[in-house]
Design brief:
Blueprint (H helix, E strand, L loop, with lengths): L2 E5 L5 H13 L3 E5 L17 E7 L7 H7 L8 E8 L7 H11 L3 E9 L15 H19 L25 E2 L8 H5 L23 H5 L5 E2 L2 H14 L7 E3 L1
Parallel strand pairs: 1-2, 1-3, 3-4, 4-5
Antiparallel strand pairs: 5-8, 6-7
Helix pairs in contact: 1-4
Bound molecules: flavin mononucleotide and iron/sulfur cluster (2 copies).
The site of flavin mononucleotide has 27 residues, from helix 1 and strand 4.
């Protein structure tokens, strides 16, 4: 049995939550980075004996479409899947059901699902510092419960919250732009999950291709990439009303 950590995580929050779960499950872990568009995901094949933790962030209550595209290229071949949706303490709405459908399409057998919280990647003052020690404790407890289910030979599908058809997507429409501090080093272009930034001229961004994931903002070594401050203030104001209460991690077995 091999344990796979299959993750789409532009700014690292999803990866942090996924690692807390995979570490608690124990054993050697094989990583598959769905954030890296240069990989050939068709070449990744699992077996029936394997278990995969498949983790994505929630974008407007849905799975980022590029993560669905890449996940459905994998060959699950009956491997068991633990689904993880990571959100910024607002809501995850239809993310887990959409992830369930994509995982099944890729040939996985869904045995558990988890919703976890990480820092909001657009407005980082929300859910700041999460996943924290309390989340770590909860996720480690979830791992024990998942292990007990699997070692009892129970591979049944959990009841996962969410609606089909899924809620309509609405792109965040926030395309980060370089500031005058930009040195043209190209780090952001190399790391953009959808190659929306021109490698030769990082000042140029393909606004239609951009998924507003904020990776370019978080990887820029000169803090020289930002979203429009008026738009960011408007989003922060909206989030303030819905993000004030601490949401806990949830397990569906
Ligand atoms: C475009 C976009 C849309 C988002 N939509 C939601 C949302 O609907 N609900 C929520 O609670 N958090 C939302 N978030 C926050 C992310 O789900 C959260 O910060 C997640 O941890 C980001 O994952 P990453 O750190 O792996 O990139 C959104 C973030 C982005 C960039
Ligand atoms: S990483 Fe920052 S400094 Fe480098 S090209 Fe991108 S925005 Fe400019
Ligand atoms: S350009 Fe858009 S898609 Fe690319 S890293 Fe920046 S926010 Fe993400």
């Amino acid at each position: 049995m091999k344990l796979y950590d299959i993750v789409f995580s532009p700014t690292g929050g999803t990866q942090k939550a996924a690692a807390l779960l995979t570490d608690a499950l124990g054993g050697e872990v094989t990583h598959v980075d769905l954030t890296d568009g240069k990989q050939d995901f068709h070449a990744v094949s699992l077996t029936k004996e394997d278990t995969a933790v498949i983790s994505v962030p929630s974008y407007a209550g849905r799975v980022p479409s590029v993560a669905v595209e890449r996940l459905t290229m994998l060959n699950g071949q009956g491997a068991r899947a633990i689904l993880v949706c990571v959100y910024g303490n607002r809501a995850y709405e239809d993310t887990l059901v959409e992830l369930e459908d994509a995982a099944k399409q890729a040939g996985f057998q869904v045995v558990a699902a988890v919703a976890a919280v990480a820092e909001h990647s657009i407005a980082r003052q929300f859910a700041s510092g999460r996943p924290d020690a309390q989340d770590a404790e909860q996720l480690s407890e979830f791992a024990k419960q998942i292990q007990s289910k699997l070692s009892a030979g129970d591979f049944s599908e959990p009841a996962i919250p969410g609606s089909r058809p899924y809620k309509k997507t609405s792109g965040a429409g926030m395309v980060p732009k370089p500031t005058k501090e930009c040195t043209g080093c190209g780090v952001c272009a190399a790391k953009c999950p959808v190659q929306a930034i021109d490698k030769e001229n990082p000042q140029k961004v393909d606004e239609k291709a951009c998924i507003s994931c904020m990776r370019c903002v978080s990887v820029c070594p000169h803090s020289a990439r930002r979203v429009n401050s008026v738009m960011l203030s408007a989003v922060s104001l909206m989030l303030k009303k819905v993000c004030f209460d601490r949401k806990s991690c949830e397990l569906f077995l």
